[in-house]
Amino acid sequence: MSKTTRFLTLAVLSLALAGGPVIKAYAAGSDEPSPPASDSGKGKATKKTKKDKSSSIDDPKFLAGYHTAYDTIYNHHDYAAAIEQLKALGQPDRADVANLIGYSYRKLGDYKVSQIWYERALKADPNHVRTWQYYGLWQLEQGNRDQAEYHLNRIAQLAGTNSEEYRSLAAALEKPPGTGLVY
Question: Where are the TPR repeats (predicted)?
Answer without folding.
Answer: 95-128
